[in-house]
Specification:
This protein is α/β, with parallel strands linked by helices. The protein is built from ten helices and nine strands. It is globular.
Amino acid sequence: MKIVRTIAELRARPRGLLGLVTTMGAFHEGHLALFRAAREENDRVVASLFVNPAQFAADEDLATYPRDEERDTRLAEEAGVDVLFIPAPDELYPPDFQTWVEVEGLGRRLEGEQRPGHFRGVATVCLKLFNIVRPDRAYFGQKDAQQVAVIRQMIRDLALDVDLRVLPTVRDGDGLALSSRNALLTTEERKRALALPRALATKDLTAARALLARSNGLDVDYVEVAEFDPPVLAGAVRVGSVRLIDNVVLEGDSK
């Protein structure tokens, strides 16, 4: 596996049928599933490792977001990644950067309402990575259902020549959706966090809200049915200082 840190070097690499996995690092089994899927379907796999400052607000956890480049490099190589792109922030956002991408409707509700500007940062960095890497396929996880919806809309609206692949959410044995932020939970906080997947597993909006209302130690940002493709029951909660999101696919059964 080759580690690349500049756009110029990445563009000089061989192409072939190319799959891209965009990440912020702190790899877990969810990331590895994306890497493996890309490995199976493409000649070459590029993964980006970039904690994108543009999608964090001033009061969010950019400084404490988990980082372990050495571990991530090893896991990516073991999963069959050919090129790991690890740019510095000023490589993607050079001085006097002024151009942003905003998916207006989808990007302003749910997560967008709770985190203003978040999806502007997501859409901008993803479009930039698509332009740099020029992938045939891009791989995302269903856990970030709204992010997937935003990227799908951007691909359609801007006529991007990339095939979006979405893989099911990967969960631990206790049902908690895998997330890089899970590492920040204490043992007790993790137990309380399990109320979120249990509530969503009802696939019933009223039941999910009632279950979370009875859960001690959770601050609920939202629980809503989102008419994405496919529709989902989505929720976001805060457990201590850690914010977690999750969703379950309703497969058209929006209760």
